[in-house]
Design a protein that fits this description.
4-stranded mixed sheet; rod-shaped; single chain; alpha+beta; Four Helix Bundle (Hemerythrin (Met), subunit A); Ribosomal Protein S5, domain 2; 3 domains
């Protein structure tokens, strides 16, 4: 069992470029991928999505990728040699035509800033790809470790709730057996004495309907079966969030039926406690993958 919340971060250095990958996962009914990548890595987005889907099946995943080029590698200073040649030719022509004194030196370069241009060096995405996916794989492993740790805590809490549900089911089973024995004894006594110690069902006028309405043995058997199945489900290694939710619906249905068939204080109290345990598990289930 894994939680849907977690965090993982990793970095990798490729030829002076540092790549940092951050992953954060939150609760969501389905798998929702939100990618924020540098423009240099836009061509890798579908491959990145595929790698994440291979590890995670449910939850909102926020991915942040940042890259920093080493100093003096991300930008390059260039001189416009064509423009400089035109400046020099123009100065020489002016000097000759107007008989100007002096020499043309490097101070010209300082006084004409448009001769220089700073250009960003294009990243070699193919070279950085290996580092990017190594960092992504490491961040995914850390995210999965974080989700697994929280999942173990959720599992432990669910096991405590399931243990209480087992006790409730056992108590209801005892009540069902005692009730069936009491009804049987009353029926035998009535038949032996020739008296009507039992009252017929108000709606149908049928003794059998009354007995059936008070008999919860079948519901208790199903309740115990669902509780045991739930205990097995939470031990499964694959994503189980939807399975748990389904089992809780079945348990809730049996508890409701039991309460409607035997609306006695003792039974209702057990049912209410069972519903409380179900709701606690359902609350935890919202965070289970």
């Amino acid at each position: 069992m894994k939680s849907m919340t977690g965090y993982g971060e990793a970095h990798y250095q490729v030829r002076g470029t540092k790549i940092v990958v951050q992953l954060r996962s939150l609760n969501h009914r389905h798998l929702d991928l939100q990618l924020r990548t540098p423009r240099e890595y836009l061509g890798f987005e579908e491959e990145i999505r595929k790698a994440i889907r291979g590890k995670i099946s449910r939850g909102r995943i926020d991915l942040f990728i940042n890259r920093w080029a080493a100093k003096a590698q991300g930008r390059r200073l260039e001189i416009d040699e064509t423009l400089l040649s035109q400046y020099l030719a123009a100065f020489k022509q002016a000097k000759k035509r107007f008989q100007l004194a002096g020499e043309i030196g490097v101070e010209l370069l300082v006084r004409v800033p448009e001769l220089f241009h700073v250009r960003d060096i294009e990243a070699d995405a193919a070279v950085e790809r290996k580092g990017l996916f190594l960092a992504l794989r490491s961040a995914l492993n850390k995210l999965e470790g974080s989700r697994a740790r929280e999942g173990r805590q959720l599992k432990a809490d669910m096991q405590r709730q399931i243990s209480q549900l087992r006790k409730i089911a056992a108590a209801l089973e005892t009540r069902a057996l005692n009730g069936a024995t009491r009804l049987q004894r009353q029926t035998l006594n009535s038949a032996g004495n020739g008296e009507s110690a039992m009252r017929p069902d108000k709606e149908t006028g049928d003794f059998g309907a009354m007995v059936s309405k008070g008999d919860i043995n079948e519901e208790v058997v199903r309740l115990r079966t669902h509780v045991e199945a739930l205990g097995r489900v939470i031990r499964e290694p694959e994503p189980v969030g939807k399975k748990i939710d389904f089992m809780l619906q079945e348990i809730q249905r049996e508890l409701n039926t039991i309460a409607s068939k035997v609306p006695q204080l003792e039974v209702v109290q057990w049912v209410l406690e069972g519903k409380e345990r179900v709701e606690k598990i359902r609350e935890q289930c919202q965070n289970v993958e």
